[in-house]
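Deliverable D4.2, example record:
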Amino acid sequence: MFIPAKTNRISSNIVDQIRKAILGGDLKPGDRLPSEKELSQQFGVSKASLREAFRALEALGLLEVRQGMAGGAFVTEVNLETARSNLFNYIFFQNPAIHEFTELRSFIEPAAAEIAARKASPKDIRELEQNLERTRKKLDAGPFYYDLDTQFHHRIASITGNRLVCFVIDSLKNAIVNIKLELELDQAFSVKVFEAHKRIVEALRNRDPETCRVEMLRHIREVDEMMTACCDAEKPFVA
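Output generated by the structure prediction step:
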């Protein structure tokens, strides 16, 4: 299955080959890779280089290395949390400015809200109304209600039925939370977000896709304005 690894960047070459075998379907979740001895011979590398590659594949969520008699390297299915962590790490090291987050959200979330207005069930609407009620009770509690804010946007994304849309929106929200924590936003920010959420839910309740899209875009731009007012507009992402 594998060929000798090139001498330059040996571990990266091993990672590439195993990754391609997994993504190509030659290796499936639950499959156990050959022993270290066999793989070292196939790749023509030392066990140390092979173990370095295994660590990288574990970090990617593609392998799980188990110890003991029944141990070995097993193919795993990348889970949502691992994927989010990888994207989060990428965002962190790219240091995007606040306006870059706003631009990306503006491309995705208004369209998601428009779709949600067409597809939302009575149960979906009830859950969003419950989110608003819990948020209202927290308005006077002090700190911004990050968990409820994230849940609100996740629920709208999930109504679309598109897992990729949901993944991107969730990942962006998790990254933005870190910026908000750094900025220590005041009560006025919380109230503004709550009012925006109410308008979005009202549009969903009325089955009004266009208004839902407009209100989501308005909300994203309001958040951008309030956040950039607290810092330089080009402030990099801070974890």
